[in-house]
Amino acid sequence: xxxxxxxxxxxxxxxxxxxxxxRDASRLLxxxxxxxxxxxxxxxxxxxxxxxxxxxVVNTSRVIPARVLxxxxxxxxxxxxxxxxxxxxxxxxxxxxxxxxxxxxxxxVGGARESELRIVSVAADGSRxxxxxxxxxxxxxxxxxxxxxxxxxxxxAAPTAEDRERYQTVYARAPGSIAAPTAxxxxxxxxxxxxxxxxxxxxELTLHVGPGTFQPIKTERFEDxxxxxxxxxxxxxxxxxxxxxxxxxxxxxxxxxxxxxxxxSACGADGGVRPLDGAARIxxxxxxRFRVVEALLTNFHLPRSSLLALVxxxxxxxxxxxxxxxxVRAGYxxxxxxxxxxxx
Length: 344
Description:
With 344 residues, this protein is an alpha/beta fold. Helices cover 21% and strands 27% of the residues. The protein has two domains: 3-63 and 165-343, QueA-like (3-Layer(aba) Sandwich), CATH 3.40.1780; 67-144, Beta Barrel (Thrombin, subunit H). A nine-stranded mixed beta sheet has the order 2-1-17-16-14-3-12-13-15. The two termini are 24 Å apart.
């Protein structure tokens, strides 16, 4: 499928710049695949929209303060986005401007108490191995790191204290993501408790969101794009719970494209979900046959993106574009801090 087939017009004023005043005050567009229709709701109504016995799976990955501002020997600014650890002192990172950050270049971070970094090597994909000379990268991020807001949020260079809280799910625990699993941002402790009272099972896995999630696709066709693997863990108890729900005819509902990728990656040749402790490698696009996920809760995604391709594969291209068109006309808020969709 050509990228142009998953394009749509979005007025810039519909790109959410701030989260909703209350997490569960976000709007929720329910997309019914069987009827080919969509309905307007608010997220707080989610417990009433699900069934007792539904198996809801969330991603507990925690966003790390991965964005670090540095300067080179000439005092010029350099921005680092730390991706994943190699060891405590060395991490892979995206660096810009890359032309000034060749192997051997040293960078400084901070003011009176400075931290020194060195570019160790440059990979074929443009990422760098960056070493901290004294101390760990994790400590540096804790001391100097910023929430890695996406660039369409205009204050991404200067996140606020609110961003440190709200660009994180209430159930986030395992540090490792460089972008939020945004479908989970709408949940509150009260919402989760209401779901449990409704009889909905809630289970937890972890997928650490990497740069492949938000990097633009440069091929003309979605199928020619290569989506990098992401670190994931599906515990044995979750695999068992999902398999039991499916055997009993209960729905498996994935909270987010990240959860979807983890569950579908953990599905074996026999159709059963197996424990996973490694990487989610599957790339879901047009024609993919979903083997685990039966309903999907997700945010609105960028046009021509791998995330929108996954949603279109699940809901159907025509229905998802129809639903997005309705959302634009109805003034829904889009992207990370925006509203949600529930595809049933």
